[in-house]
Design a protein that fits this description.
By secondary structure, the chain is an alpha+beta fold. The protein has 16 helices and 16 strands. The radius of gyration is 28 Å and the shape is elongated. The chain starts with 17 loop residues before the first helix and ends in a 9-residue tail after the last helix.
Length: 426
């Protein structure tokens, strides 16, 4: 029989690794709260049409990577491959614009893409991200980018770099695509098959090609999109740069940064992990003023980013940013037998209720084995409970960190634990 295991490209978040996720998630929640963003949670599957229309039928995501299936009612459904389209759908469906003129939203959750798995690329992965819906102004772009940088700074990550670009409004981009096509026409034969296929479609995708010869041709012959923006687009981009300068955020202007998704307008940006391998994008985003209208919603400008959790963890691991995990256990109680267990249980429950972290021996081990385990778990205090302790209603609390002992009445145990405990009542 075939062994049961995770599906290719998917991973368990193991109990001894989940503290990394929790640390990142708690920093994220603090940062999002400081910038006044609200969480939105959408379903993990949606009607396929949402992504076909929202992400663009010709994008790699939609044409090659989606997990699409028919349900028993014959509906075509898809496991979400990204979250912006879902958030836009939610905005339209629930008339967010009637609640307030501006919505600042964050999300965190699993996504699904049928890509070739490799380090930093999975089939189920997780993204956190934000969307600012309602503002056409460059200060919204600046806030989104500044927030993304704040997350990496708050987590202590050092090896990353911000890249920014503008791909202009739809008209300027159409015009630029013609200019690009004309400039590359003489070099077309040197391009790879895929780039030649894309030449007459979305030629901007040529910037994403990883083939070295295509890269060389693009570098040598592709005109910079920034030189072909409208005056309004240029003004928007310059204002964004001024705001980033004002808050001291360094950036690289990267004219090749056009991003794979069809819905971007004006600002695009990416944060690259400079110590990561081939899959070096930590975070990507930009402005998408046309998406909500294209999905039959009100004409509403928006800007946002999405960032990978797994790649962030890889980058933080490489910089040694996760401390050795300690569960912060206050007390380990080992009853000598089942009668002692029964008598001490109400005390254990009362302590846990007050928020002390109490481990109760569940394996009926010898005192020696129990002590070894308590040491491994870095527990602060240990107590063995036998007949004598029950009779006196006291315990010999052994401090494993400082190697001393305290004879303590049951009523006083809380006071002793309080010297070191980080408890919060539950
Ligand atoms: P995208 O939605 O493609 O712009 O990706 C945004 C971010 O999500 C990237 O910068 C990565 O950090 C992360 N990401 C995208 N695809 C994957 C994947 N297949 N596995 C892991 N992380 C991914």
């Amino acid at each position: 029989m075939q062994k049961l295991r995770t599906i290719k490209g998917t991973h368990d978040i193991l109990p001894w690794e989940s503290h990394k996720w929790q640390k990142i998630e708690s920093v994220l929640r603090e940062v999002f709260a400081a910038y006044a963003y609200k969480e939105v949670r959408t379903p993990v599957f949606e009607y396929t049409a949402l992504f076909a229309r929202g992400v663009g039928e010709f994008s790699d995501i939609v044409s090659k990577e989606m997990y699409t299936f028919e349900d028993k009612g014959g509906e075509s459904l898809t496991l979400r491959p990204e979250l912006t389209a879902s958030v836009a759908r939610s905005f339209i469906q629930h008339n967010y614009q009637q609640e307030a003129p501006l919505h600042k939203l964050w999300y965190l959750g699993p996504l699904f893409r049928q890509e070739r798995p490799q380090a930093g690329r999975q089939r189920q992965f997780h993204q956190f991200g934000i969307e600012v819906i309602g503002s056409p102004h460059p200060e919204a772009d600046a806030e989104v980018i500044e927030l993304a940088c704040r997350v990496y700074r708050a987590l202590g990550l050092r090896n990353w770099e911000l890249h920014i670009n503008s791909i202009g409004s739809i008209e300027a981009r159409k015009n630029y695509m013609d200019i690009l096509r004309a400039a590359l026409e003489p070099h077309k034969d040197g391009l790879c098959d895929t780039c030649r296929e894309r030449f007459h479609g979305n030629i901007l995708r040529l910037f994403d090609c990883k083939n070295p010869e295509c890269g060389r041709i693009m570098k040598a012959h592709a005109p910079a999109i920034l030189d072909h923006l409208s005056p309004e687009d240029t003004e928007h981009f310059n204002a964004l740069r001024n705001y980033l300068d004002a808050v001291g955020i360094p950036y690289v202007i990267d004219p090749a940064l056009v991003r794979g998704l069809d819905y971007y307008t004006r600002t695009t940006f990416e944060i690259k992990g400079t110590a990561l391998g081939a899959q070096d994008a930590l975070c990507g985003g930009g402005r998408y003023d046309l998406l909500i209208r294209d999905l039959d919603g009100p004409d509403t400008p928006a800007v946002g980013f999405a960032a990978g959790m797994e790649r962030l963890i890889l980058a933080m691991d490489a910089e040694g940013l996760f401390e050795q995990e300690s569960d912060g256990l206050d007390l380990y109680i080992a009853p000598m037998d089942s009668r002692c267990l029964e008598k001490v249980l109400p005390l254990v429950t009362a302590l846990r209720e007050k928020g002390y972290r109490v481990q109760l021996e569940l394996l009926r081990r010898s005192v020696k084995a129990m002590l070894r385990d308590a040491n491994r778990q870095q527990v602060q205090w240990v107590a063995v409970v036998g007949e004598q302790e029950l009779e006196k209603r006291s315990m010999n609390l052994k401090n494993l960190r400082e190697n001393d002992q305290l004879e303590t009445a049951w009523d006083e145990i809380g006071a002793v634990l309080d010297r070191t405990s980080k408890r919060k009542p539950i």
